[in-house]
Hints:
By secondary structure, the protein is mainly α. It contains 5 helices and no strands. Helix 2 packs antiparallel against helix 3 (37-76), helix 3 runs antiparallel to helix 4 (81-213) and helix 4 (81-213) runs antiparallel to helix 5 (216-238). Residues 91-202 form a coiled coil.
Amino acid sequence: MLLESRLSNLKQNNFYPSILSLGVSEKNLQQSSRYPPEVKDYSRITALEREISDIKEQMRCSKSVWGSNNAYTQNMSKDGKSDEVEVKEVNEELRQHAELMEAKCSNAQRERDVLELQIVSLHSGLHQEKVSSKELEKKCVKLQSEITANRSINESLHLEVSALKQQSHTLENAVKGSESEKKLLHVKVENLQKEKQILMSQKELLFEIMKKKGKWKYLSKELTRRLVAFLIGFLQVFL
């Protein structure tokens, strides 16, 4: 009856290995898989710390029960060998369970350390990403200002090109007008030269006639006056 009560007590306190079906870390990791990576890491660390605490508590209780069982074994050795064998088996299982708990505790602590290092690395990477993001924002602002300046320069150049095109059209029209005026002046010069030749021929003819009739002096003065007036008009046209 005392052995049965001892085993029942072990089962109620979760110290008997046969009833341990699922560890605390597995349950917590399954629950934490629903959260984002950073939250998941923190929840895993919290679960590992809780598991370490539970394992240490179980180890403490197991050692206490193990000590009680040793004392109980010594007392039972007087009554019968069969009960002593059963108690030794329970003690061996408790010892193995304590070793298993120690191994789990060590693994959980190592996993916690690894997760803490990963979190530190993630924080460092996040800081670097923030710095890079700020640098990219500064470069973006600088490029936008350069683009705005280039647009204003392009607009100024476009206005200058439009003004130069307008001046070019004006000059082309002026050149066309000058060419037409030049043609008109050339025609006038040709007409004046023809008129000059006609006048010179008339002058020579009049000289011959006046020589014959004795009126040379009077006519020479008249012809000289006309010739001077013609030359003055001719020069005014070209000036």
